């Protein structure tokens, strides 16, 4: 069955790759391109800027975008506006219209006049007055000889008194008194007892849920102690087909050919048995060998050992047929071949082969018929030297290598290593963050080199960052003593002290087993498993078999009366292709359609023998449909563009009729 893919449609403009001539006709009900981002600019181009607060049409004059804005100028009470400029760009100049002369001693007055500010305000002296509640207050004596009194009066349990110029406000708490009775009240989940208490006693509160609480039950929303049913889901899949098993589903393990299954409800054990087709008894085992060998104890009918020994002598050898042959007594061979893997030479029985070394590279020596090939004391290698094996290779003298290695397996010179380790971590000891000892995080710091490393020995702040015991701080650069620019970015802090984890904090935690869940630890890793038992049940068109902990699910072939696997094959005028298990069925238009690609104005030869063709164009990068001039011939179409398109254009030709 063909898979139907879901597509999302987006609004795209229709690209025209040639000029549009309306032949003096109107362009009615047209709308400018609305966008908040200016398009690629060309002189004469227009669009509508939809940016909030702008909302105006703009055109490009060859160097900048010009807004088409209609406006009028008007003067206000305090500001006058003046317009200047003769081209599309106008300048509005605003100026204050106040009369008078502005200066450092004049200010803009509300009547639009520059004026000085007069100082004719009245000042007041404050003294205490009165002595008791209702009379204590503040006496105001003005510079104009006027007086006024502000009384501060208490109310209820609050009183006011004065001593000199000090006012004291005293309040007796309105909650002072004696509790004469405390009673209990009940809520949906909690009930109380022991009340009311009028002198002394104990109030007792407890959960009021029905049912019996134990380690397997939880308080339910209806105020009942109840066990929580298992809620889970997991996926099961075979070579073909898959399914999600949810709470309440049953997976059955069913036997198949030579396989039976049995489930013991008492021990919760599933047993899978195989009736192997090779079960039986071996009654006789014999052994036959070529004539160059002798076999004893063959056949074995109950138990025993089959023994094979050679039948020849030291002067014989075994040929390719397994028969014994006698070694020749003289050199009667025609030749033997000496080769280096690419060049070969035949050495006859009367010829001599010489093994020769290379100066400073290979030495060859012969003694008593033995050729020894080795290295001289001083070896010069012009190419690459590869030392293989798993043992250790040692050099008694010095080995000279290039200063800078290139490949990841190249040897590094002493100079390269010295340069590479500059700035490496150098442990300096502990750092007390509570007392800033040694002094590292102020501008009175000690001198520090790049790579110096300290371990925090006391909690505290390092610059603005919290550090704890066990954290490590590392200098990113050389820092001179008393550096006025010393800052946190000059350092790297490595957090080691991690707090305990909670619902919102990442930290140290523990994984515990729960109902239906098992937890096992190994090397610090917790493995969580589902300890429930699940069964797989075969359905229509599905076979299920199991062996040694593996489940095999097979699909049955489809028949008129049984659902199963169907293969879709192509036929006349129909093509079938497969990808990721999906068959795609499509019509074959090879005799009535053609496709080609153009990068500029050109001709496509389709050889469909008709001008009755539909021609469609699209951009090979954006895949948008585009338009251009098209001229049709019997076997060709010519496509004309006003300018060379940015991307190649795909030309689709389909014959009609």
Description:
The protein is mainly β. Helices cover 1% and strands 35% of the residues. It contains one helix and 48 strands. The longest helix has 7 residues, at 414-420. It starts with 33 loop residues before the first strand and ends with a strand.
What's a concise summary of this model?
The chain is an all-beta fold. Mean pLDDT is 79; it is low at 1-11.
**Mean pLDDT across residues:** 79
Helix/strand class: mainly beta
Per DSSP, the total helix count is 1
Q: How far apart are the termini?
A: 30 Å
Tell me the strand percentage band: 35-45%
The geometry reads as extended
Please state how the strands of the largest beta sheet are arranged side by side.
1-2-3-4
Radius of gyration: 50 Å
Strand tally is 48
User: How does the major sheet shape up?
Assistant: 4 strands, mixed
Query: Approximately how much helix is present in the residues?
Result: under 10%
**Uncertain parts:** 1-11
Supply database-style keywords.
disordered N terminus; 48 strands; 657 residues; 35% strand; extended; four-stranded mixed beta sheet
Topology:
Blueprint: E1 34-35, E2 46-49, E3 56-60, E4 65-68, E5 79-84, E6 91-96, E7 107-109, E8 113-115, E9 124-129, E10 137-142, E11 147-151, E12 158-163, E13 166-171, E14 190-193, E15 204-207, E16 217-219, E17 225-227, E18 233-237, E19 242-246, E20 259-264, E21 269-274, E22 293-296, E23 307-310, E24 316-318, E25 324-326, E26 335-339, E27 344-348, E28 363-367, E29 370-374, H1 414-420, E30 426-432, E31 452-458, E32 460-462, E33 465-467, E34 472-475, E35 491-494, E36 517-522, E37 525-530, E38 542-547, E39 550-555, E40 574-579, E41 582-587, E42 593-598, E43 602-605, E44 613-619, E45 625-626, E46 629-632, E47 636-640, E48 649-655
Parallel strand pairs: 1-2, 30-31
Antiparallel strand pairs: 2-3, 3-4, 5-6, 7-8, 9-10, 10-11, 12-13, 14-15, 16-17, 18-19, 20-21, 22-23, 24-25, 26-27, 28-29, 31-34, 32-33, 34-35, 36-37, 38-39, 40-41, 42-48, 43-47, 44-45, 44-48, 46-47
